[in-house]
Design a protein that fits this description.
This protein has 2 domains: 3-81, Arc Repressor Mutant, subunit A, CATH 1.10.10; 86-207, Tetracycline Repressor, domain 2. 70% of the residues lie in helices and 0% in strands. The protein contains 10 helices and no strands. The protein has helices spanning 3-10, 20-47, 50-56, 61-67, 71-84, 97-111, 115-127, 136-159, 169-189, 196-207. By secondary structure, it is mainly alpha-helical.
Length: 212
């Protein structure tokens, strides 16, 4: 298992500290999630198998399925884990558009420290364009939600006179999401020449009068 996959799982806060047999079970589940995180982010959902995941942590396929009853259940758990360390989990959604956008910048900056999170999004979001993919509806809902968050943030800036002339909040939100996705892909290909947070700040300064 790579350090990035394990660190991505470790970054997600947990409530309390489990004890006894529950602690062992929870510890094993976290190992499985870290292995699944790695397999899905490198091979994708369809090419990555339950056996591949089990092999990474020395479990049998049956042993893994004792903790997660199906591959679909494991994918759902991985996506939930990802979201806990993403937009919702970062607590960046506020009534103040400037605060929300600054939160997005912080999130992008933090993502640059966990390549596995970025790879997972790029691989699974591309795969899920197929309507038969088990994460298809998840990504549809997620993109709708993210665009809505962005649109509300830009609308707040518009009400305060902070959007530049001609900028439409809903359009700016779609552009923001497209920019973030494109930057993530370019960053994965060459992280030495792409500063995702800096590029995002430049975009926001170009369409608003805020000093991001």
């Amino acid at each position: 298992m790579t350090e990035t996959a394990a660190s991505a799982v470790a970054k997600v806060p947990r409530r309390g500290r489990p004890r006894g047999s529950y602690a062992k079970t929870e510890g094993r589940r976290q190992e499985i999630l870290a292995a699944a995180f790695e397999v899905f982010s490198t091979s994708g959902y369809r090419a990555g198998s339950i056996q591949d995941i089990a092999d990474k942590i020395g479990l049998t396929k049956t042993g893994l399925l004792h903790h997660f009853p199906s591959k679909e259940a494991l994918l759902e758990a991985v996506l939930t884990l990802r979201d806990e360390d993403s937009w919702a989990g970062a607590g960046i959604v506020t009534d103040n558009g400037t605060d929300t956008l600054n939160g997005i910048i912080r999130l992008v900056h933090n993502n640059a420290t966990v390549p596995g999170l970025v790879a997972l999004h790029c691989v699974l979001s591309a795969e899920s364009t197929d309507p038969t993919h088990p994460a298809h509806e998840y990504f549809q809902r997620r993109y709708d939600w993210v665009r809505n968050v962005g649109s509300q943030a830009f609308s707040d800036l518009d009400r305060r006179g902070s959007l530049r002339p001609g900028v439409v909040p809903a359009v700016a939100s779609r552009q923001l999401v497209a920019l973030m996705d494109g930057l993530q892909l370019q960053w994965l290909l060459d992280n030495n020449s792409v500063d995702m947070a800096a590029e995002l700040k430049a975009f926001l300064r170009a369409i608003t009068t805020e000093t991001f």
